[in-house]
Write a structure and sequence with these properties.
- By secondary structure, this protein is α+β, with helices and mostly antiparallel strands.
- Helices cover about 30% and strands about 25% of the residues.
- It is built from three helices and five strands.
- Strands 1-2-3-5-4 form a five-stranded antiparallel sheet, with helices on one face.
């Protein structure tokens, strides 16, 4: 188990603050939830715990379901004092996320719908130059109380 309990300036913003490679499998969601809860605790943003845990769970679940990569990278940043961004990077840039519609009795297909309902905003960024990206990051942002 990775622990992130260390002194960190609660208002630190900028470059990725926490980044961790994880196996690309459904069980990784539990590790991702623990990591995001640790980070939010350090930043004194415990009020975002429930939506952040849901977002990280769905981002990891989508990566494990839709990409054959052996591992993913969970990144948690503070792009500003008003936002927390959680992202999952995988090496399948050709498989972009699609906001679909699940039927009432479908057992899957609601991940991005949940993220869309909970997050302030979400998206996907490609990594690499030109027409040959080497990875993508699917991310979602939550607004802090300071941004309300």
């Amino acid at each position: 188990m990775t622990s992130l309990r260390m002194p960190v300036d609660a208002t630190a913003v900028g470059r990725p603050t926490y980044s961790h490679s994880l196996p690309n499998e459904p069980a990784t969601a539990e590790i991702g939830r623990r990591l995001i809860l640790d980070v939010l605790g350090i930043w004194q943003l415990d009020d975002l715990a429930d939506p952040a845990a849901l977002i990280v769970t769905e981002l990891i679940a989508n990566a494990s379901r839709h990409t054959p990569c052996p591992d993913v990278r969970l990144i948690v940043r503070r792009p500003s004092t008003r936002r927390v961004r959680m992202g999952v990077v995988d090496r399948e840039p050709s498989r972009l996320p699609v906001l679909g519609q699940a039927e009432y009795d479908d057992e899957a297909g609601r991940g991005l719908l949940l993220i869309d309902a909970v997050a302030d905003r979400w998206g996907c960024d490609l990594y690499g130059l030109g027409r040959r990206p080497w990875a993508k990051e699917v991310w979602a942002e939550l607004r802090t109380e300071a941004g309300a």
